[in-house]
Amino acid sequence: MTEDQTGPRDSVSGPSQHVPVVIVGAGPVGVTAALLLARRGVRSVVLERHRDVYPLPRAVATDDEVCRILQAAGIHEEFAGLARPARGLRLLDARHRVIAEFLRSPRGHHGFPQTSMFDQPELERLLRTALARRPECELWGGAEVVGVRQEGAEGPVHVTIRQDGSERRLSADFVLGCDGAGSLTREAVGAVWEDLRFEEHWTVIDVRTGLPVRCWEGVDQVCAPHRPATFMRIGENRYRWEFRLRNTEQLDRELLRELVAPWVDISHADDFHVIREAQYTFRARIADRWRRGRVFVLGDAAHLTPPFVGQGLCTGLRDAHNLTWKLARVLQQGADERLLDSYERERKPHARQVIRLAVAAGWAMTGGQDAAAALRRAAVGAACRIPGVTGLANRNLNHPLPTGPLTRRSRLGGTHAPQPWVSADGGRARLDDVLGDSFAVLTAVPLTPSLRAVADGLGARIVHLQETGDDGTLAAWLRAGRADAALLRPDRVVLDVVPAGGGDFTGIAAWAPLLSSMRRPIEQPVSAPLLRSTTR
Ligand SMILES: O=C(O)/C=C/c1cccc(O)c1
């Protein structure tokens, strides 16, 4: 990528420090990526142009898969202390009658509440505290990245940084651009936005109040083309409203009183403090490429989604989870760099689907003022048939990643394994805490020596379902997937299965060459039927 570089070429003299990974941007995606790498022993420097956490809230929601990612980063318990499980999402009509209700479970497939609300600055402080505990990570505040350039096809990436009035340079094996919508790294990757055709101006207000607020402890989406709105409780006495104002409107106290009246009466009250008011242009966009050479983009640098399904930050954290274990395998085990091609291939279709769902939800709230639109909205209540709105029922999108070398075609391939509580050391633990940070095999039957050798080649933990002491979730899941055993990637996605009745991992010929470590090649069994006895 020498010819497609961003920023000054060699304006900085002197030797540059080398680090395996440079992460541009210390928002939640960047810091989570650093923590996930650190858990695998990969060193990184996180560069952030601001010195402190941005003090105002932006993202407000996580789903259960994202809580699992925070678990992998080692902060889920602290996060639970500041998050508030939500009951779900309701679509209301202009008169605030419920048209459709999508309830979220307090314990979803991943073992966490399917929707939780939180305050972003609190999450960011938590992430940074966790980062400060890791010797593998450094966070450089006040460090603005002004150039990213890879030396040749195989060479290191040079990052030019402006800090305290002077420029310095870092070189890295890989650079992760977690630098948001205005990403400089995206330019370095040579990406352009694909417009997914949604652009609306909304006003977001965050409020602190002790007044009684009519609230069902979930998210309200008001589907009223003249006055669409979103409302949710974020904390003990913290609330968020989002309104699409008319072009001529100014949000003064009188208009605010009128807008929030369906939820709270502020006519005679002082105790209603707007702690933030911001104008946003909600957009739907996806970068046409997410990687060039050893430079990647993640989060808002790669995709922008309207907030109507609460998935903006979640999508970025999924990117970090998907990419970091692969990078670690390349850096530490000498795995083939083609492994990294799967990042964009797996993540982009999912991000696109999330954006489409958010656009559909936005359309349900705002689209059309004619009689046909009114009828369509009425139909939502009856059958939830507005295109995309049915997807809200399953908005945490536990749909399979596309089939590829690391997601073999089978009933379970590319899906996440569930996470029940299991027995551990005489107590109880979440499954992932027992599995550790690497690959894992969940098996209902004893493994043959050759399958065991494959698992060993991956450094996989082998867990026999008879011994997990879970509530039967795992056995039922394997049965439903018609599998005797499932091979899980470090991000808990099913890489491959041993089909019910025995056999080999079905796709080993595709994934073994990508995952092989230079130190410990994975041997492919010639024929490896499972032993059918129950003894080992
Ligand atoms: O579908 C859910 O459970 C939550 C959706 C959500 C969360 C946060 C903000 C939103 O506009 C929607």
TrEMBL record:
Q: InterPro entries of this UniProt entry? A: FAD-bd, FAD/NAD-bd_sf, PheA/TfdB_FAD_monoxygenase
- Tell me the first and last residues of the signal peptide: none
KW Oxidoreductase (keyword) present: yes
Pfam families given in the database record: FAD_binding_3
Q: Where is the FAD-binding domain?
A: 19-357
- NCBIfam families linked to this entry: PRK06183.1-3
Record-given protein name: Bifunctional 3-(3-hydroxy-phenyl)propionate/3-hydroxycinnamic acid hydroxylase
Organism in which the protein naturally occurs: Streptomyces coacervatus
